[in-house]
Every structure is written in structure tokens, then in C-alpha cells.
Amino acid sequence: MAQVLEIADLKKLAQRRVPKMFFDYADSGSWTEGTYHANESDFQKIKFRQRVAVDMTDRSLASQMVGQDVSMPVAIAPTGLTGMQRADGEILAAQACEEAGVPFTLSTMSVCSIEAVAEKTTKPFWFQLYVMRDKDFAGRLIDRAKAAGCSALVLTLDLQILGQRHKDLRNGLSTPPKFTPHHIWQMATRPGWCLGMLGTKNRTFGNIVGHAQGVEDLSSLSSWTAEQFDPKLSWDDIAWIKERWGGKLILKGILDPEDAKMSLKTGADAIIVSNHGGRQLDGAISSIEALPEIVEAVGDKVEIHMDGGIRSGQDVLKAVALGAKGTYIGRPFLYGLGAMGKKGVTKSLEIIRNEMDITMALCGKRDIKDVDQSILKRY
Ligand SMILES: Cc1cc2nc3c(=O)[nH]c(=O)nc-3n(C[C@H](O)[C@H](O)[C@H](O)COP(=O)(O)O)c2cc1C
């Protein structure tokens, strides 16, 4: 491919370079994938107001998320198995974020461990927590994140049980990868990926294997999730997590105004309007559709972030205009990583930054902090 100009170009490249089962793992939603696709297509319904003859010099995208400076209101979303898109994927993505001045969020279900990422980076990253039935283990994860200097904890609330993703079941996805002839073929046709994997020790769930009692190997993500994730998680649990953590707390997976109101009682610093990238409740509304009513319900009381379906800087700008103080990208950075490693993650961030900057200017604004609904036609 001659030029990478948009996120879709990175997706095409990733598809060629990442074994099918792991590419599909990123590019999948639950059941019909209706919510996954609505996340993307609902952004298209929102239109900008074009303004002219406005001074467009000296523009700034710099902002803050939970009190931390960001070069633009975009963070990397926590994604499991990132180190299977490319060897050492979490480390590479965290380094790219550090250089770009945006937060990187490490998933509980990452391949590279909290400690491995901390060792190869110089600035604090964020850690995402799934709450396990084994509270000691969850507590130790919090302690490890603290010890590694993480500067925010993202608590995911929308995955107490796992949504069914047909592609993963059809592919027989597992970590470490199985070695059936089918899987070996998928990997053998991606020699660059294989070479990378041979050169790293990070090939399983680094935060879990060897840390959770009795877990020496994780052959099935879904059965481990079914056994270990706490289906009883309730609003009351947030109190002990908040106390043990003691730092900035962000609640992820809020899609309903009633839940947004409940989240106020927890004292969290921010909430993320999210449906887990359409990977959990298929048939739920898109994140961008959910955003305005949540902003209306609690926007004056808590910082609001959103994720789901962002594929361009224009999408980020629309979310900011509708009241999001920050946004997160999942698949766009995964495609960049699978396509070109660290350079690809940097590219995904650059594409989004450039699109946001130009769009903001053409809407007649010079500072992201001045962006509000007035830049949109339909609101
Ligand atoms: C491959 C993949 C793995 C994910 N793993 C996690 C995870 O471990 N923890 C979590 O809170 N969210 C996880 N998510 C959800 C993302 O954090 C985020 O909500 C979603 O990707 C945003 O949508 P987008 O991919 O359209 O940008 C995952 C998403 C993807 C695509």
C-alpha cells in the first residue's frame, strides 16, 4: 500500500499481517454485531456547521482528562490480548502514547504485564481493572498498578459475564494460541508476526498467569472469564476498590442515564459512556447516541468520557461537541499496531489528530476547549 491516509488503510494492512483469529478478535462484536456497527454509523448522522472568514491560526487541541494534561482529548482504550496483534503490543502502544502525549490504558487481560509495561516506559499509564470473584487477586492487581505508578484506574462495569462473539468461537480463539493445523496455517501465512512472537517471552496473560492462584496457563479466555469474573459485582463493591486504589477512578461501561446517576454516588472522577465496542449487549444503542442524554443527566456533576466507533478525528470532535471531555480509541490503535507496530499506533494517533485539527478550524474554532454543540448542525 502506497499511502496510509485513514484508519481504514491501517485496518486493511492489519488484516494482511495479523493471523486471522487475532484480527477477527479485534474486528468483532457480539451476536449480530448490530451495536458494533451502529457505534460507527451513528457518527455519520451528525453534521458539522461550516464557518468561514474566521481567524484559524494558532490552534490547540490540548486539554485535560481527570486533571491530567493530554495533547488531545483521546486516550487508548484498554484491550485484551493486544500483545497478540503484534509481539509486545502493549509495550509498543504505551511507548507510542507516551510520545504522543495521550494516556495509554492497560487491560487486566493484557499479554504484557503491568510490570513489563512500566519497565519499558517512562511516564505513568492507566490501568483497567476487571473485578474477579477472587477479591484478593483483584486487590493485588490494584496494588501492582499503584506500585507501577499508574495514574488512573479504569474500572470496567459492563463485563460481568462475557458477550458471545461468533467469530472467536468459530476460530477456536485461545491464548496462548492452539496448535491445530488450522491455527498453524493462519500463523504460517503471517511470517513477520511469527518472527516477532518468537522473539518475545510475552505470550500469555501476563497479569494473571503466575499471579492468580492455581493459574499456570490460560487455555480458554471464555471459560476463565466465566469462572473468575464476578457476576455479583454491585455498586457497593466500588467503595473498597476506590479506597484501596486511592487515586483517580474512572467507571467504564455506562450507557444509561440511570446508571450514570448511580455512578455519582461512588465519587468516581469520571465515567466512560461505552458499550464495550459492541462486544457485550448486542442491540444496545450506540455510545454516541447515548452520550447526550447522559450529559444532560449528570454532565454538570462528573467528567464524562466516551468510546465506541471512533474512526476519525471528526468523530472525536463530535463527541467533544456533545459534551465528552475525553474519548478513547480501541480498534483504530489495534489496527495500527497490527499493521506497523509502534509506528502504526503513532500513525493512528496522527491521523486522528490531523483530522480533528482541520475539522475544528473549518468549523471556526481554534481551541478544543471552546468546542461545544454550536459546531454541530443537528443539535
Ligand atoms: C479486541 C478488544 C479487546 C477489548 N478488551 C477490553 C478489556 O480487556 N477491557 C475493557 O474494559 N474493554 C475492552 N475492550 C473495549 C474497549 O476498551 C473499548 O470500549 C472499545 O474498543 C471502544 O470501541 P472501538 O473499538 O470502536 O474504539 C476491548 C475492545 C476490543 C476491540
TrEMBL record:
Residues that, per the record, bind FMN: 78-80, 107, 128, 130, 156, 252, 274, 307-311, 330-331
Family annotation (InterPro entries): Aldolase_TIM, Alpha-hydoxy_acid_DH_FMN, FMN-dep_DH, FMN_HAD, FMN_hydac_DH_AS
Enzyme nomenclature, EC number: 1.1.2.3
Any one GO cellular component localisation term in the record: plasma membrane
Pfam families from the UniProt entry: FMN_dh (PF01070)
UniProt: glyoxylate binding residues: 25, 165, 276, 279
Domain FMN hydroxy acid dehydrogenase: start-end pairs: 1-379
Catalytic residues, chain numbering: 276 (proton acceptor)
Keyword Oxidoreductase: yes
GO biological process: aerobic respiration
GO molecular function, one term: FMN binding
Cofactor (UniProt): FMN
Stored PROSITE patterns: FMN_HYDROXY_ACID_DH_1, FMN_HYDROXY_ACID_DH_2
Organism superkingdom: Bacteria
Catalytic EC class: oxidoreductase
Gene3D superfamilies noted in UniProt: Aldolase class I
Protein name per UniProt: Lactate dehydrogenase
Keyword Thylakoid: no
